[in-house]
Amino acid sequence: MNYHQILSEIYNEVTPLFSKGKVTRYIPALASVPPDKFGMAVCTLEGEMFTIGDAQESFSIQSISKVYSLTLVFKMIGENLWDRVGKEPSGNPFNSLVQLEYERGIPRNPLINAGSLVLADILLSKTRDPKKDLLVFVRKTSGNPAVDYDNAVIASEKITGHRNFALAHFMQSFNNIHNPVDDVLDVYFHHCGIAMSCVELARSFLFLANHGVIPDTDEYIISKSEAKRINALLLTCGLYDESGDFAFRVGLPGKSGVGGGIVAVLPEKLGVAVWGPSLDPSGNSLAGTKALELFTTKTGMSVF
Ligand code: GLU
Questions:
Q1: Mean pLDDT in the chain?
Q2: Of all atoms in ligand 1, which is nearest to the CA of residue 64?
Q3: I want to staple 29 with a disulfide (CB 3.0 to 4.6 A). Which of 57, 148, 156, 234 is the partner?
Q4: pLDDT at 91 (0 to 100)
Q5: What whole-number percentage of the chain has pLDDT above 90?
Q6: Catalytic site residue from 58, 240, 243, 274
Q7: How confident is the model at residue 26 (pLDDT cuts 50, 70, 90)?
Q8: Buried b (16+ CB within 10 A) or exposed e, 202-239
Q9: 67 in a domain, yes or no?
Q10: Residue 255 lies in a domain
Q11: Catalytic: 220?
């Protein structure tokens, strides 16, 4: 497979999309990110890395962090997680409140904001320092001990995160948040505020492509069955209310964030990350989604 050639074709084909869509504005620190940034990195299980564009540049991973916190919580409490969070696609925006009322404070899945707030709450109850633990996990899986929080983004989101506070208070009224809301939000905003590059993201997802084991160190993270279940959630719930469209067009389990990143895995083969800050109305990167669609089309590789 000539990944260099394929990535360069993709770059040319997605360039017209840089000027379409909108960069996230509701988190003020992200509003000034240039819309014509674009990076893509493919990392194979053998450790080969192929990149194009701004693949080495760090950006705000935002909701991609939900995959890491889900992994930590699922590893820790297993099936008990499903007493507090569902595993169905939401079909609603990532920060929606309406569904929670109907469903009595149980979020549809762990990859939307409400679900991830419950993950943060569980980590707070079970561990001493959930902010540090997630960072340690990401540094290990990405192979870069320098990965860190972006404190400007975290502070910015704290000031404007009214909906997330509302979601947490609302769930607390249903007894599905057990810790003080401010503490839960502090953990949640930190997790969203990690800065990483496409290269680091692609490598950090390899354990999900490799049945739960980090390929280059052979370190066990989760079981084969747990990796299967997390990948299934990514496929059905990873792209907000566009998860169906993404599965249709791309055919890979993946997770997006409003910083413009998307990471996807092809089990037993590779991890792939893209970054394009201009988003469609659901909050997914326009160029990133197109790039992944072109990637699976040109390589002929997907889970189907
Ligand atoms: N920190 C963002 C929020 O809570 C994450 C949203 C996202 O990337 O989906 O609104």
A1: 97
A2: 8
A3: 156
A4: 84
A5: 95
A6: 240
A7: very high
A8: bbbbbbbbbbbbbbeeeeebbeeebbbbbbebbbbbbb
A9: yes
A10: yes
A11: no
Question: In this structure, what CATH number is given to the domain that contains residue 263?
Answer: 3.40.710.10
Tell me the mean pLDDT in the region 211-229.
Answer: 97
CA 112 to ligand 1 center in whole angstroms: 8
Percent of the chain surpassing pLDDT 70: 100
Among 60, 113, 167, residue to substitute to test ligand 1 (most atoms within 8 Å of Cβ): 113
Q: How many whole angstroms separate alpha carbon 61 and alpha carbon 291?
A: 18
- Asked if the model's pLDDT at residue 94 lies above 80, the reply is no
| Probe residue for ligand 1, chosen from 25, 65, 67, 95 as the CB with the greatest number of ligand atoms within 8 Å | 95
What total number of domains does the chain contain? Answer: 1
Distance 95 CA to ligand 1 centre (A): 8
Let me know if 224 is a catalytic residue. no
| Residue 304 belongs to a domain | no
- The predicted structure's pLDDT at residue 284: 97
Nearest partner of 205 among 258, 249, 160, 261, judged by Cα: 261
> Is residue 102 assigned to a domain?
yes
CA distance 70 to 72: 5
As a whole number of angstroms, the longest Cα–Cα distance in the chain is: 54
Mutation test of ligand 1: which of 33, 63, 66, 162 has the most ligand atoms closer than 8 Å to its C-beta? Answer: 63
> Sorting pLDDT into bands at 50, 70 and 90, what band is 95?
confident
What is the extent of the structural domain holding 275?
Answer: 3-299
User: How many residues make up the chain in this entry?
Assistant: 304
Q: Taking CB atoms and a 6 Å cutoff, what residues make up the pocket around ligand 1?
A: 62-63, 94-95, 113, 157, 164, 192, 257-258, 283
Residue 262, judged by CB atoms within 10 A of its CB (0-12, 13-18, 19+), counts as buried
